[in-house]
Amino acid sequence: MLRTRSGRPPTLWLQILLVGGLACVVLLAVQAYRSQRSSQAMAERALRDYAHFAAWSYREHLAVRLREVADELLGAVNHGDGLHESPSIPDVSELGHYLYYDERCTCHRARRGPLPVRFLGFTLGSDTLGVAVNRAPSAVDGWRADGDVGGDRGLRPMLAAESRALNRMIGELGRQSQEAWGYAMRVVALDGRTHLLGVRSMPTQWGDTVIYGFDHDAAALGSILSGLLASGDLLPSTVLAGRSNAEVFDIEVSDPAGVPVFRSGTRTTWDLGATAQLP
After folding, report:
1. Which of 20-34, 102-116, 172-186, 216-230 comes out lowest in average pLDDT?
2. How much is the average pLDDT of 150-175?
3. Rounded to an integer, what distance in angstroms lies between the CA atom of residue 49 and that of residue 60?
């Protein structure tokens, strides 16, 4: 058998080299695995940060949009900290006249959001609810406060139970602090369906407090929530990389009970999710 000067067989050196080479490969593999795990963890942290930012940004945009919607519909009766001094109190049927008038349709339009299903008027301490409905036929994309109610809008008389429920809800909302937004809003279940109620209290000089409000149905609320996804400043352009908001993230909006009222996609669970709560 051939031997080296040290007396060791050549195959022993080959075995030593082979074991050493395998050890290096294992070390490199472990290092690569650790590097991959570290990179993956960093990527997940970055995605979570983006998710939290997207949730926060959507909430802020939604708060602004809801304020704009309420301001357009109820701004005429919003006296802020002041009292209503005129002996004449606006009837709830007059609220539609304060909207932008479009001569092309001889109707009033809402330019910052959808038209409500109805305007509401209520005096604290009373049991009578004033209701104003859109009297324009469905073929007219606008609001008409006068004339016969368009029969093809599917309107029906409000049931007594619905009126009592609205009185209670509006009274509760009217008593809430309205300093933050200038309006009080709540997503509620009414007649078995989702509604967005917005109100503004109008204290009078002689002590009464009149509450005016609007009622959006689920379709109108959905149009507000989905319309925000078209906003170009929800996420930085570097994150979107030429894609739309809907291609980058999904949104789910739930009512105070946790029941979803809007989903932008089909997902119901997320690996990298974030939440943000409206006032």
Report:
1. 20-34
2. 69
3. 16
Return d(Cα 111, Cα 20) in angstroms, integer. 75
Which residues are bridge partners to 109 per DSSP?
100
Enter the DSSP assignment of 129: E
Asked if residue 2 has pLDDT above 50, the reply is no
Beta bridge partners of 253: 262
Q: C-alpha distances in angstroms, 213 versus 118, 186, 268?
A: 9, 11, 33
Contacts of 27 (CB under 8 A, 6+ apart): none
Contact assessment for residue 185 and residue 66, using Cβ atoms and an 8 Å cutoff = yes
Residues 53 and 275 sit within 8 Å (Cβ to Cβ):
no
Q: How many CA atoms lie within 13 A of 205 on its CB side?
A: 6
DSSP 121-172: EEETT---EEEEE--S-TTS-SB--SSSPPGGG---PPPHHHHHHHHHHHHH
What's the rounded Cα separation, in Å, for the pair 75 and 77? 5
In sequence order, which residues have a C-beta less than 8 Å from that of residue 98 and are 6 or more positions away?
A: 75, 76
pLDDT given at position 12:
63
Can you give the pLDDT at residue 256? 81
138-153 pLDDT per residue, tens: 888 899 988 665 545 5
Range with lowest mean pLDDT among 50-59, 105-114, 147-156: 147-156
Crossing angle of helices 218-227 and 10-74, in 10° steps, is 130
Residue 195 has a CB neighbour count (10 Å cut-off) of 21
Rounded to 5 degrees, φ, ψ at 102 are -110, 115
